[in-house]
Amino acid sequence: MLEADAALPAQIRDWAEACRTYVKEALGIELDYKPETLPLLDHYVRTKAQPSTQEVRELLTPTLGAYFGEVVRRNLDADGVRWHAPPGAFEQYRVEFDAFFLCFNPLGVALEVLLGDDAEGYGAHFQLLDQSRPAVEAALAQNDSVSADDYYTFTMRYETLELVVSVLLGLEAQRKDQPHRFGRELYRAAAGEVPKGELS
User: What's this model's pTM, rounded to 2 decimal places?
Assistant: First the structure.
């Protein structure tokens, strides 16, 4: 059962638990929100959710995405990771990191895994500040042997995210001034959800 967490949107909690139920019924294995369960989630998608019809995608995108996002939030909590989950707007969902600027949409990742292709408009890619991008791209370039099939898996997305987080933590550790905190308002402004002039 998912731990009680007042900051976790109820819908995310319910979807993540539904994902656990689907996988247990299909594979007889209980997911426990650890990164080691992501290959099992990939196996579930390959064996039980393919071919990915529109109906399957509509059912599984939020549940798989919520579970994946919770694995990230619970295991990569680099001093604060939270959900942004506006009601009914799946394409605007994201997890946001507080210690550095990094966000992405776990539901978008789930849709890309189901499609085996990019999902335009769903924010599945990792969004960074421009000044962080060269260091992250250099680190990723050293590990460029990822096949297209591997890229569209939860396992590889998580491993890539781990690397990105480690780079961003390193960049923050090198800062000579006070560390930044990246709150909800900044992410909303970056996404164009509020005018930047309204930031407090």
Answer: 0.90
